[in-house]
Recover the amino acids of this structure.
């Protein structure tokens, strides 16, 4: 497992995505995945207040499962927990929940479900473009000041807004955003093809900003729903409807033979190539691995030590 420094600790460059735990992924399978991930050297768990939430106000089954696993195994000081709050209700994704009341309610409920006194990283799960970035960072800083959160992150924020927020934070002695979480994989995607205009997908301008500022990125949907693995294995027909809509484009299909060629040259799986593409970037990048199947997690972690050269990354691009 590769790691990247992060303040007083280090983060495994593959994080375990816990979004469907206790929901479509059974608790038994979820706990087994957590065991495998930790045994393979992983230490970063990605969850959220809304993960596993059937409707507004319901508990997060994801946070509950993660909290149970950590407490049962006495691992609080050995894993890094990242969770998120202030996500809009699913019924109205354009009605922001970045308010003081919602923020405090979400973090308190997350802590209760995780059975923790504080979380290592807490993300504003969406931006609110109608609010000043300075106002939002002031709110988030309160969580750090109260000792409820160690570090702040921005999930699905444009870099221009992160830069605006951090400029204010530096000038006014507030806590900055120190990590970002957006959609990023070897396959190109947009908010439009994803079907959610509140989402942020990596593009070249965003990537160059992260590289310039050396800011860590957590990349979700890092395997593009198995696009490359399935097509290379001749199982393209098994791609889900979502995968086809979001990722099955001429641009991405053109990358398939390159991914296949590099996987054969390095004698690794296409999944390992996809993960290494992210974990070998110039800025610290962490690929989120998530699956409902144990064997897929094992396969993904099989390439956890792989690094690609700048030439190989350019070849894939």
């Amino acid at each position: 497992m590769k790691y990247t420094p992060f303040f007083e600790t280090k983060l495994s460059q593959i994080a375990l995505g816990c979004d469907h735990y206790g929901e479509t992924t059974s608790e038994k399978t979820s706990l087994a995945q957590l065991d495998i991930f930790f045994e393979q050297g992983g230490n970063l768990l990605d969850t959220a207040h809304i993960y596993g939430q059937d409707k507004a106000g319901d508990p997060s089954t994801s946070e509950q499962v993660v909290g149970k696993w950590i407490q049962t195994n006495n691992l609080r000081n050995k894993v890094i927990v990242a969770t998120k709050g202030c996500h809009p209700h699913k019924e109205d994704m354009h009605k922001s929940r970045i308010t003081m009341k919602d923020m405090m309610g979400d973090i308190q409920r997350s802590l209760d479900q995780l059975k923790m006194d504080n979380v290592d990283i807490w993300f504003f799960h969406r931006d609110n473009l109608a609010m000043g970035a300075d106002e939002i960072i002031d709110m988030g800083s309160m969580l750090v000041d109260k000792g409820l959160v160690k570090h702040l992150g921005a999930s699905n924020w444009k870099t221009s807004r992160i830069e605006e927020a951090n400029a204010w934070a530096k000038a006014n002695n507030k806590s900055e955003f120190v990590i970002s979480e957006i959609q990023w994989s070897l396959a190109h995607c947009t908010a439009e093809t994803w079907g959610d205009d509140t989402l942020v997908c990596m593009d070249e301008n965003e990537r160059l900003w992260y590289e310039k500022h050396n800011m860590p990125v957590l990349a979700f949907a890092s395997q593009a729903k198995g696009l490359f693995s399935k097509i290379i294995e001749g199982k393209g027909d098994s791609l889900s409807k979502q995968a086809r809509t979001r990722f099955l484009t001429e641009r991405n299909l053109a990358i398939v033979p390159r991914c296949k060629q590099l996987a054969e040259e390095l004698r690794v799986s296409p999944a390992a190539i996809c993960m290494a593409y992210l974990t070998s970037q110039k800025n610290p990048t962490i690929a989120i691995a998530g699956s409902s199947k144990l064997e897929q997690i094992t396969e993904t972690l099989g390439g956890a030590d792989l690094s690609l050269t700048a030439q190989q990354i350019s070849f894939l691009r």
User: Anything to note?
Assistant: The longest helix spans residues 100-114. The domain at 3-225+282-308 is CATH 3.20.20.100 (TIM Barrel). The CA atoms of residues 184 and 219 lie 5 Å apart. The chain has one domain: 3-225+282-308.
